[in-house]
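User: Hi! I'm a student and our assignment asks us to look at how structure tokens line up with a sequence. Could you show me two examples?

Assistant: Happy to help. In each example below, the sequence comes first and the structure tokens follow. Example one:
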Amino acid sequence: MNCCDGRMICLLAVRALQYTKAMNVATPNLGKPRTVHSACPHDCPSTCALDVEIGADGRMGRIKGSADNSYTAGVICAKVARYAERLYHPDRLMKPLVRKGGKGSGEWGDISWDAALDAIAENFVKAEQAHGAEAVWPYYYAGTMGLVQRDSIERLRHAKRYSGFFDSICTNTAWTGFVMGAGALRGPDPREMAASDCVVIWGTNAVATQVNVMTHAVRARKERGAKIVVIDIYDNPTMKQADLALKLRPGTDAALACAVMHVAFRDGYADRAYMAKYADDPAGLEAHLATRTPQWAAGITGLGVAEIEAFAALVGQTKKSFFRLGYGFTRSRNGAVAMHAALSIATVLGSWQYEGGGAFHSNSGIFRLRKSDLMGLSYADPDIRALDQSQIGRILTGDAVALRHGGPVTAMLIQNTNPVNVAPEQRLVKQGFLRDDLFVAVHEQFMTDTAKLADIVLPATMFVEHDDIYRGGGQQHILLGPKLVEPPATVRTNLFVIEELAKRLGVADKPGFGLTEQEHITRMLPAYDMDFDGLKEEKWIDCQPDFETAHFVKGFGFPDGKFRFRPDWTGTPAPNRPPRALGAFGPHEALPKFPDHVEIIETPDADHPFRLATSPARTFLNSSFTEMKSSREREGRPEVMIHPEDARANAIAEGDVVQLGNARGDIRLHAKVTDAVKPGVLIAEGIWPNSAHLDGEGINVLTGADPVAPYGGAAFHDNRVWLRRT
């Protein structure tokens, strides 16, 4: 029977009260319920404007997309809409912890904030005395995209002359490919998708990872009868929304782009007058593409010739074609070449001339925020070594090249990232973190795979518990995320940790230290004649350039105003080019003179006949949201998608445990047999916690950290593997 007596009811009530008290109970501004503005802090180009409900008890309730923001347009992803589940999660870190047993043993003791910060500072000083300041490596990334809470760690790095941080893991390849052609990292107003007659969504599963792209694309279809084209490597939710879906082999995007441009020249779709004015060498490109036929591309991409011809005719005949180019281009070793090739289509067709036409990847180059005080740039020293974020495993295991032939890293502070889970070459990463001579402090919201291997763990605030400022690379707004609820008394901001360490390490008198979040935000806004209070009143700033600037009507971002069909792969400045001392990365000498397919990818061989991509899951975001019960239930379990032909050939049935491996290691997953993938291609969605996998090792055991040409990156979707049923 499902019943209980009065004593049980009383006991349940007491437990519920204890549970509530253990959670983050926010209590400021008690009174009437209200709806207030914020901004999504997570690593997504949409950077959605949010309307957050705050109850009379001061607790956060539901979150909605702001209907007043013209890009968010009232729509946000389901995982952020459920954010209260994360904020009030019973497993959230609530107090500082110090390791008691061996590394990774899970044995922790309580420690006060002052004692924890003292211990971190002491270990940093000890590392510096033994091996020099470069033995300390502050390590961070995009767990929050708030500029104050994310980037203040750089100020401490520069003040103390600690090892530099080359943030290669996400944007580099795509940004580099775009700027190689356009000369600037900006493009048409992404809201113009709604004014397009054909929206090409290429290299992003927007339904799962950039929902607002779909908002504007679907509006174009409803209001204008626009066609939606989706180009990706498997049949994901975005492809299901497409009028034309092109499923190609991983790493073959440039071949498709070249064939489309071949058809444009062949069939008269190319805008020769536009290219004569705006491009560097259209005649050379046309001659180069003479042999890049749809038949040639079909053999590389796995698409049918008819599919390629249909796509080329659609965009060729549709002047207002909007190419929305995603971050999938960053995940392949030839991604910069692929991005440049896809971008070049808009120039061949002259699509840039029209509202609702052109190509867009990121607006990250438009925002004009002054970050010198925030990041301590006035005392940054370019001669200090810079270590590649993607190669953390090699760095921590003593690889001389990865260490730039310098001394070891023996102390780290980690904020806003979870490298033991998300970084390539996971076995090397874990091996490095288990070193007895490495001290690690992790400032986190949950006990992540990285926190589990730390010496000290500090509890961190969430986005509604502090002030910060955001910029939306996938759109055009600077947005304020003000503090809305009070954090637990034992939880601290990233800025607090940096300021307190600066005091203990003797650099708190340097410029940029001693400022509040609100003061930092004001100092970033001189270009807008606005301070924190003004931005709080306005909620956001629309920074979108005018049509002529956004569409490069006055010329592209090179001195001669010409789009580069012939890129200078190692001479062109790029938004995140590595320090000059590091030089160009990877097999840059193999990069082509004109747009072309180049096989600097991990192509299958006899021992590794499959290509593996580790694509995003809909309800996770990198390793965030994996702690939420609702997200885990929606995703199920770690699985690998296998085409039915490959399953039959390997005697694999739905739900079987299979093993994937390569030279980096091997892991076990459950099989999901589906024709959503092409034969020879495997897809593992989501970065699950390592502990969710059968053997306690995650998918990044199989991904590589070799540098991507020409300016670095991490090729998470570019892995050859073997597959067998266990």
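Example two works the same way, sequence first and then tokens:
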Amino acid sequence: MKPNSVSIKLKTFLFLFCIFSFFVCKKTSSDTEPESNLPNTTKRPNVIWIVIDSLRGDIIGRYGVTPNLELFAENAVTFKYHLVNAAWTRPSTLVFFTGKYASANPVNFWDYPTTKSEVDAFYRSEKRPLPKLLKDHSFVTYMVGNNPFLTDKFGLGVDVGFDQLYDFSNYSEDTKKITKKTFEVLNEISSHDKPFFLFLNYNDPHKPYTPPQGFTNRIQTNEVLDERKMNYLGEVAFVDEELGKVFAELKNKNLWENTIVLITADHGEVMHAAHAISPFTGTNTYYGHGQDLFLENIHVPLLIKLPGSHLKQSIQTMTRSIDLFPTVLDYVGLPIPNSIQGKSLKPLIENKETTKRTYYGETRFTQGYGEGHEFLLQRSYRFHELGKFWLGSVGSEFYLYSDTKKDPNQENPLRISNIATIQDMKLQPDLEKKILRFWKQIRSMEPKLPLYHLSIQPESKDTEILIRVPSGTIRMASYPSDLHLEEKEKLVQIQTKRKDPFEISFEVYPDVSFPEFSVSFSKKQIPKSEIFTGYFGVSLASCQSNCDLLYESGSKRPVIHPNAKVYFWKEGGQKKSYSSKQELGTDALEILKKQGYVQ
């Protein structure tokens, strides 16, 4: 071969190799580089999410203290029947940022401390809360406000992924400081090319109600008000004035038109004497919240100004706080994850809604379900954690049914002591059927409890099984009809003369303690070495402490060895910490005192 021929072929090869390498590298780069590092070719709308803590759904436009919010509503969509799915700040905020019910994430909604195991579990399970998800799509994200539950510094909450977080929960007279910092952030934001997400969280009118002088003078009403409600409304007037300044600054910075502005509250406030003492917790909740799911606790405002729109619209249909996460994604043009339990409000705004939304909520000692204006609330131990709110015993769980068209303040709900004996109440057939359907909906909406299974191959005609739990109660799920059971909440004793193999299944309610059990044939107890457990059939004697993972079989039934006299396994449910000894630190306690959470 001639030298120049080799040279030409070599040059051709190198040229083609370079082209190939360029496209491969380009493809690899675009596939692996985070979107936040890519040039922003399409300007998405900005998002400002404003939370006014404890603002009830019946305040705006009623007492003369919300002129700026009323002016805002002239160019916004107003949702008249908007309900939050949790009734105090931490779980409600996590509903905002996960689009899921409070029980769908590992952080408890009973006590103030968040244990390290809860926080770690949240970070494992919630990879992309809303601020993180938006950050991944080129948004710069800020939080300005008073919400101690959005940081993990004080043992009160979790970090949901803001680029910058300015929390004023440790400051007195925080409202003006929040507005001042918002102006600084808007000044910084206005120089960015990227879209932004700003979460603005005012703590007023959360108790203690201490409005600046003169703001209660703005109240206009014929209603006879006590001092607490006057001061509450004075704080509403104060926040409204501060929001007016924020709205003006947004317009001055030319940020108004291309910004979604969403205004809501994390919960309401109890002001009706009929609910002064919560029937669910027995706690004095007058001018407070978080102890029930009555409408005054869960009905809050929702106003949304759409980008580039001056649409004024009023929507009467029920909406829920789980719907806000997917709504934001819908309007900024991002796909909604399949794991989200809410539904975007965009079809409702565009009059394309085909199904009615239903309500499911959770708070301390309470679960609830609603359709339209009818609700069934349950006193519930379902999500309890051991701590100062609960010491381990399970009491009666009653139900309250109300129709808020007939009883707007829910003063006289129908009480059902035991759902299993509802037929004894001799209700109208349609009402009984509806209550049972609502009850089934509550059961279907909540996460399932783990099931424990025991497979027994008797050696004699005299088998005895004892199951105990230190906290909570045992609930039998399935067992042969010829077994004799004695159930005493924390103890179940089973006796049978059967000689053929059988299985029993049970759950621990709530899932806060691990069951202990013993099996005896003809009064002779089976040793741990002869009891096999979990998916792999490991001997129970092989583990002495922290053995709960050993028992797991996931969703699959283990292959039970034919010679196993006793086989035990746990189906479903992740490993969890069954008790918490965590106390509030000094900083956390001071924050909660300033915010009126603790006295």
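Here is something you could point out in your write-up. The chain has twelve helices and 27 strands.
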